[in-house]
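Slack export, channel: ligand-projects

TW: morning all. Re-posting the request from yesterday since it got buried. We need the structure predicted with the small molecule present, not the apo form. The ligand is zinc ion; the SMILES is in the block with the sequence. No rush, but it would help planning for next week.
GE: picking it up
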Amino acid sequence: MSVPLPPIDELIACPRCDTLHQCRVLAETERAACARCGTLLITPRTRSFLHVVALSFTAMILMVAAVFFPFLGISSHGLSHESSVFEAAMAFSDGWLAPLSLAVLLAIVLLPVARFIALIYTLWPLANGRPALRHAAFAFRFAEELQPWSMAEIFVIGTGVALVKVAGLAEISFGPAFWAFCALIVVTVLKTAFMSKWTIWEAIGR
Ligand SMILES: [Zn+2]
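GE: finished. pasting the full token output, ligand included:
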């Protein structure tokens, strides 16, 4: 004999292991995690929205530092050079490599910033206990669809790999922008950990 399923809009699938759970709105101090793998499914509403808004603001400030402050310094045989990410991207800005310059700026700066702005637009009123703004559903869907294209963390890993290659040829020093990028990754991970899509959609829909 099969067990009858609850209505489909009361079901929530774990984003990591796909286990189905029956969901309900939680009290302000409760949180719901997957029964099988422990992934956070539903967060208490106002406080977690406020965390995401605060972390998005932090990430935007770090992004400014990460892009315009010196990222790396290279010195070899008495010659030294420091460069920021913005200068590095602009180095390709004329000639046939110009699209590369645009792609770099898009993937590591503009798209992540657009995502942070869309999240703040969606969650700021909700965090203050007001109803969602008119285009909140569109803004949140936009933020979700941009996620795979925001590559700030991949950029840092790529830089690490390149540095291992260059380290034998010249002396390398990390500028403040490198550490700003590292902090940015930590903030992004925290933001993902605090964010429950189900809770946000549920709040937008009300
Ligand atoms: Zn799970």
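GE: first-pass observations. The chain has a mean pLDDT of 84. The two ends are 37 Å apart (CA to CA).
TW: perfect, thank you
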